[in-house]
Design goal:
177 residues, alpha+beta, Gyrase A, domain 2, four-stranded antiparallel β-sheet, 51% helix
Length: 177
């Protein structure tokens, strides 16, 4: 008996139709994915332009609070205006993010003596005491890995005279808005 005479009992959809449905499904998925990417790109552009607009408004507000030297303020009013300007600048510091990033980077061996923000140029000066330079270098490396900080440098370091075996260091860095 030859194989030619065996009837074809495959009742399913033919292969060409299956292939067309598979291609159609892949095309629909690709279209959906590209649509989702386009929508997210559009949202990102809107959020970025909104961020830039808000930053410029903040800079304008800070700029308007500067005290004009030629203004007709009394000495006490000028001192108050300068104090208010400094307070407004310090309120612009992202304290939660900055202090969290510093604490995450700090090891137990390092003692922070002071953290001084300079909001005018988004910089921060950290004074610390550590058992050795390796701890300071590790702290600087961990700070530079934090997303909020950049330009992290050791400004100075010196041995503490009254406390043998400790190193005092000053670290300068800048934060991102």
């Amino acid at each position: 008996m030859k194989m030619k005479n065996i009837p074809n009992l495959d009742f399913s959809i033919d292969r060409a139709a299956k292939l067309r449905w598979r291609k159609f499904g892949i095309a629909v998925l690709a279209l959906g994915l590209s649509l989702q990417i386009s929508i997210n790109a559009w949202r990102w552009q809107n959020l970025d332009s909104e961020r830039i607009r808000l930053q410029s408004q903040m800079q304008e507000a800070v700029g308007r609070t500067t005290v004009d030297e030629n203004s007709r303020l009394t000495a006490d009013q000028r001192k108050l205006a300068i104090a208010l300007h400094d307070m407004l600048l310090h309120l612009a510091v992202p304290w939660d993010e900055v202090l969290t990033a510093v604490e995450v980077s700090r090891s137990r061996a390092i003692v922070l003596e002071s953290v001084q923000p300079h909001p005018e140029d988004n910089s921060l000066v950290i004074n610390l005491r550590a058992p050795g330079f390796d701890e300071v270098a590790g702290f600087v490396e961990l700070l530079s890995r934090q997303e909020i900080f950049y330009d992290v440098i050791i400004c100075s370091e010196s041995l503490v005279e009254y406390d043998k075996g400790f190193l005092r260091a000053v670290i300068g860095l800048k934060w991102r808005q």
